[in-house]
Amino acid sequence: MDITLYFIIVTASVLGFLYVFRKGGNFIVYEDINGAQTLKDEEFRIEGKPDQILKNRRFVTVIEVKSKFIPNNQQSPYAGDRMQLAAYMKIAENHFGKVKGGYVSYKNRSFYVPWNWFLKRELKRTIRQMEDAETGKQMKVKPQKQKCYACIYRDRICKIAK
Question: HSE-up of 100 (CA within 13 Å, CB side)?
């Protein structure tokens, strides 16, 4: 490659980067494609591969894409999807800096979920409950026919659904 052409390409790339960065534009800093690295958080003992993590000079945004639809009258994401996003936001905070929030994106609409102390506390409580369930500790359960039918624990450890 001609040195002049190489210099022009590098200069254009740097100028483009500086323009977007100065404007506060988002950059993809992580994407779950082609064997992406699993990200971990030692404090909460969780790991995962968020679909996409965006960063600008002020904060990080996590995006979780779902392959399902959500009813139009639904006011918030499904609880499990919200908790999955919360786990990814905790992981992203550990790796990329201050997280402002994230999006759960269904086929027909998206929901913004802010990352705050309340959601962090709820995530910690949920992880503790999951750990208790896996160690055989008796759990408070509110059986619901539809949820119990689809639950992965129904045949393994749940005594209520049997």
Answer: 10
